Amino acid sequence: MKFFIDTADIAEIRDLAATGLVDGVTTNPSLIAKTGKDFIATVKEIASIVPGPVSAEVTATDFPTMLKEGQKLAKIARNITVKVPLTPDGLKTCKALSDSGTMVNVTLCFSAAQAILAAKAGASFISPFVGRLDDIATDGMQLIEDIVTIYAQYPAIKTEVLVASVRHPVHVVDAARMGAHVATLPPNVLRQMFQHPLTDKGLAAFLADWKKTGQSILGAEDGAAKAAE
Ligand code: G3P
Residue 152: how many CB atoms within 10 A of its CB? Predict the structure, then answer.
């Protein structure tokens, strides 16, 4: 399963990319607005930090302008994925861009019917928003299960299921269980995934016992090297 991070915060991206666990980045107009920085410059910098797909979203709503915006965004870097909303004009843009070899992430997906359309339009990624469905008392993860099952019926579908609007590690574990290809994680969720109190407790006990031995692993290496001289 691939992990993208769902942020436009450069410092967060640099920090998390250093873990070696980040396969891509997703941004949206709200995340860009939160940074207060220039959109194109920010996306360009992100694409230079993370070699995998970096989603940059169009903001027009009519096909001709969406296409022009998408073509401009695609030129920023070879790893840019153009993000379009799941509307008729958005899917028309998706088809035109994917036919010309540009990766497209179709966003704001809330139903299996919409996901079928996105696959037919040649999307590289479909982004179902699980958290926002949970927010309205609808099971977001059920939608992931449905889309994964439907896509699996058709080997010709190359669209990857990108679980978005993730709110906590259980969403990620459930998505992995269902075989979703990608989850895009807010930075705090990726950090939460490392945590377990028994890991902290166990490590503290190991370190306390190790201290009692008076030994040092690197010190032992130095000693062995000296003995061999
Ligand atoms: O990738 C889409 C995601 O950013 C939406 O998340 O938390 O605003 O529903 P949220």
Answer: 11
